[in-house]
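Work Package 3 (structural annotation) set out to generate three-dimensional models for the target panel prioritized at the project kickoff. During this period the team completed the workflow that converts sequence records into discrete structure tokens, so that structures can be stored uniformly alongside our sequence database. As a representative example, we reproduce one entry of 299 residues exactly as it appears in the project archive.
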Amino acid sequence: MEPELAQAYERCRKLHRKHGRTYYLATKLLPAAKRLHVHALYGFTRYADEIVDSHADLTPRQRASRLAEWAQRFSAGLRGERVTDPLLPAVLHTIRTFDLDLADFDSFLRSMEADLEVSTYRDYDDLLTYMEGSAAVIGTMMLPILGLPDPAAGREPARQLGFAFQLTNFIRDVAEDLDRGRIYLPLADMARFGVSARDLERRVATSAIKELIRYEIERAREHYAKAALGVPLLDRASQACIRTAFHLYAGILDEVANIDFDVFAKRAKVPTPKRIRVALGCLMTRPGTPVALPGASRA
């Protein structure tokens, strides 16, 4: 591997290790030949997200301009032009290696553009449209890397796992998203429980807000249930990784329940000893074993 390409993969790995600790732990269970490509996809998505979210000193228009410039460099690389960028060579190499569907990348970048313009979502269908580009396509991007004897059978579970992971993040990160001026809880759901944007901005977990969070957790669990069907279908070498990610992300919902659905009290996370136990248990699980579904949330 040429030094520039190796450096790009390493940059992606470091981004993954810093910002995606749960998923990063799971990827350690992948063969090294698969792992670097997963890091590349994470690096691509994370870098775009940072352009959108990590420059509070810039106006939305300036961030949109930066995102557009980066997307143009990406497109140039896809055309075979040489690009100067700290991580794009890695994702371009991964795309070529696995002949990944470029429509997934277009959909993802459109969702990132939406984050610069949209701050609320009317109902769950509205949010799903956004998550199709920001999460479901990441699941389908991953499939050729993970390997699947029957790609058609795995596509929908992969999409559902993307939905499940992102909705888990939205539930856990209500306070952080408010800091960015965004609410990812559907307005129709909020109205159903008598919760307004102002109520969330007070950052006090009232009984109504807790019921709203409980409701969204159960919705996320429905996505996990649909996603579980796909894990045993993956290549044997990939199952422990995705099984671990599945249980660790679902475990975040348990941790939210453990703090009585108070998403303002602290950022819910799975304790490190439990993370290690889950990873070891998944590593020891016989490939093809059905995935145990997350339990019901507790009062």
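Residues 124-146 form the longest helix (23 residues).
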